[in-house]
Design brief:
Protein name: DDE Tnp4 domain-containing protein
GO molecular function: metal ion binding
Largest sheet: 3 strands, antiparallel
Strand order of the largest sheet: 1-2-3
Shape: flat
Helix content: 25-40%
Cofactor: a divalent metal cation
InterPro entries: HARBI1_dom (IPR027806)
Structural class: alpha+beta
Radius of gyration: 19 Å
Order of helices and strands: HHHEEE
Keywords: Metal-binding
Number of strands: 3
Number of helices: 3
Length: 109
């Protein structure tokens, strides 16, 4: 992108970061809003009916997303798998739909 638009890499990095934050702010409430108490009840009923698992509101898992070491970050992003990463953590309902997503924790945490 930097070469195509003849701007510096740091400028591209800041613009991409800003655009991503705006997209999250606008789209997250539409497509991945925070579950309500009614939603949690629906998820628990779904797990009971579909999978015969009582008192369960979601299935949780995480994934290390490989990345280059950011400048001046030391070992913050270095994980136990011996590479740099950020962590994606997600919860899905009984129909495999994401209900919560968190991306961005340091790989070493």
């Amino acid at each position: 992108i930097a070469l195509a638009f003849r701007v510096g890499e740091s400028t591209v990095r800041e613009v991409v970061k800003e655009v991503c934050l705006v997209l999250i702010k606008i789209l997250q409430p539409l497509y991945l809003s925070s579950p309500t108490e009614e939603d949690w009840t629906k998820y628990a009923q779904g797990y009971w009916k579909r999978w015969n698992i009582p008192n369960c509101v979601g299935s949780i898992d995480g994934k290390h997303i490989r990345m280059r070491c950011p400048p001046n970050s030391g070992s913050l992003y270095y994980n136990y798998k011996k590479y740099y990463s950020i962590v994606l953590l997600a919860v899905a309902d009984h129909l495999y739909r994401f209900t919560l997503v968190d991306i961005g924790a340091f790989g070493g945490k």
